[in-house]
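Appendix B, Record 12. Input sequence as logged:
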Amino acid sequence: MLSTVIGDVPSTMFAHVLGAKGVAVVTVSHRVQQLPARPARGSAATGFVCATCGKRFRVTLHSSAATVRRRVTYLLLGLLVLALAAFLLWLTFAVGIQPDGPEDLDYDTDTASWMPYTGLSGFFAPVLGLTFLLLARKYDGVAKLRRVDADGTPSVLTEGHKLMS
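Logged structural output:
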């Protein structure tokens, strides 16, 4: 079941950048290749060779089950943060600002001290919640592309190569 939802081979592709041209609008051409298959369990750093230039690379791949777990976690976090944002906005505008007019407003320092925090959090939390929801949709279980040097040490720099989803 999980292999049909996520797939044994990630949909993210490894790309060798062939060139870029243009000034205002830059067009980049790539030569892409499939990444290795996912491990059966957990996560594993898998090595492969770029078909275009012959350089060695290592990428961390997560299993189908681990990818689904991470996606569900991102989904739940996104929904939780959006619910928290709705509660904070309700707390700020329904409880903190009273609709009965300015003569009934409570300017007590305890009430006034929490309103900016809940108001600001209520406005910025949806951005975080929507980011988690986007991650839940886009996460493919592929992480840490590293170029492997001649001595076998992984390098963070992967000039001319990238992961494309």
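Residues 64-96 form the longest helix (33 residues).
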